[in-house]
Amino acid sequence: MSEIAERRRVQILEAAAVCFARRGFHQATMPEICAAAGLSPGSVYRYFRGKEEIIEAIVEADLAEMLGAIERLARTPDSGTALAAAVDAALADTDPIAGTLTAEVVAEATRNPRVGAMVRRHEAAVVAALAAVVRRGQTRGEIDHALDPTHVATLVASLVEDVTIRRALAPEEDLAGYAGLLQETIARLLRPAATGTENAG
Questions:
Q1: By C-alpha distance, which of 150, 146, 145, 148 is closest to 131?
Q2: How far is the C-alpha of 167 from the C-alpha of 173, rounded, in Å?
Q3: With pLDDT > 70 as the criterion, what percentage of the chain qualifies?
Q4: 3-state SS, one letter per residue, for 1-67
Q5: Across 22-36, 56-70, 96-110, which has the greatest mean pLDDT?
Q6: Closest by Cα among 4, 151, 176 to 90
Q7: What is the pTM of this model?
Q8: Tens digits of per-residue pLDDT, 128-159?
């Protein structure tokens, strides 16, 4: 895809995200998305055949961003710190549109099988990436070896999603103030039961 085409896609997706967050997936119309993007219907339909394809592209873009963030966090020397940082990043995000859009996509996933399948693939990929961080930490003796990596990863992913949605529900609330408490909670959850040396192998 050319650079111009990629810019057009991003332009449409950003406009659609605002429309979906403001009006909801079903109430937002393609003409509204075209107007928000400042493009003609023909230009928009050249890239997306309808709202479902736009939602799919938004979910895929979010997945790529999250996997990239997890990959960067995975380079952190301590795996527990890396997992806490994933939640911290969600707490530090001040964009209420992201939370509203997440809530809208999740709601649509419960009604629309195609969107539901997209969201499940997204969540499975994120959980798998986080579980890999947990396993690395267990191998190094940083995380309790008795913990199920997938369960830990699912919990962390759920915290990130809940924080994102909370941002939309209470935009005036300083969620970053919870960072210290969440860091300590995650540290206690992951800490090896004994010294951790016997779990290092």
A1: 150
A2: 8
A3: 96
A4: CCHHHHHHHHHHHHHHHHHHHHHCCCCCCHHHHHHHHCCCHHHHHHHCCCHHHHHHHHHHHHHHHHH
A5: 22-36
A6: 176
A7: 0.80
A8: 999 999 999 999 898 999 999 999 999 988 88
Dist. CA 11–CA 96, nearest whole Å: 19
CA distances from 158 to 38, 53, 111, 152 (A): 35, 25, 20, 10
Tell which phi-psi region holds residue 38, choosing left (phi > 0), alpha (psi between -120 and 50) or beta: left
Amino acid in the structure at residue 59: V
User: What is the tens place of the pLDDT at every residue in 29-40?
Assistant: 999 999 999 999
DSSP conformation letters of 153-186: HHHHHHHHHHHHHHHHH-TTS-GGGGHHHHHHHH
Go through the domains of the chain in sequence order and give each one's CATH number: 1-49 (1.10.10.60), 51-199 (1.10.357.10)
Report which of 161, 155, 16, 4 is spatially closest to residue 93, judged by C-alpha positions. 161
Instruction: Tell me whether residue 155 is exposed, middle or buried, using C-beta atoms within 10 angstroms of its C-beta: 0 to 12, 13 to 18, 19 or more.
Output: middle
